[in-house]
Specification:
seven-stranded antiparallel β-sheet; single chain; about 20% helix; Pnp Oxidase, Chain A
Length: about 160
């Protein structure tokens, strides 16, 4: 699939949700995300994702050059909810939800996914309180001062 065929990113990310997945030391971890975006930057098709510091998946993203963004049909809504509410520290979420990894890719790909974006990390920056122009966002979204890290990743392949 060509990236140009991947339409309506607003709904795909915010309403349909996605799994953000990465590998570390031969293991895979994944989490559900509903914040992010797609665009064009530095002459490349990119995705922007936002991960809080306490998320176990962040360790995997930080220790890998690649990650994947996977999108599923509505039939997988319950699985996506589970993946967003449980930690990979406590349970093998992939096994628990009976998902199957495809071998041979640079980042995790699930057989069950409708579309997967294989992405190479280009940029990472931790959000800071001082960088917020609209300070009203801080108590609403960051009451615990657990500011996201912003990742900009190049979309290298669409499966």
């Amino acid at each position: 699939m060509d990236i140009n065929e991947f339409s309506n990113a607003f709904d795909k990310i915010s309403k349909d949700w996605m799994l953000v997945s990465a590998q570390k030391d031969g293991k895979t971890n994944t989490m559900t995300a509903s914040w992010g975006g797609l665009g064009f930057l530095w002459g490349k098709p990119v995705a922007m994702i936002f991960i809080r510091p306490q998320r176990y998946t962040k360790e995997f993203i930080d220790n890998s050059n690649y990650l994947s963004l996977s999108f599923f049909t509505e039939d997988y809504r319950k699985m996506l909810s589970f993946m967003g509410s449980k930690s990979g520290r406590d349970v093998d979420k992939i096994k628990e939800q009976n998902l199957h990894l495809v071998e041979g890719e640079l980042a995790p790909v699930f057989e069950e996914a409708k579309t997967t974006l294989i992405c190479k990390k280009l940029y990472a920056q931790e959000m800071t309180k001082e960088s917020f122009i609209d300070k009203d966002l801080i108590p609403k979204f960051y009451a615990n001062n657990d500011f996201h890290t912003t990742y900009i990743v190049e979309i290298e392949k669409v499966i």
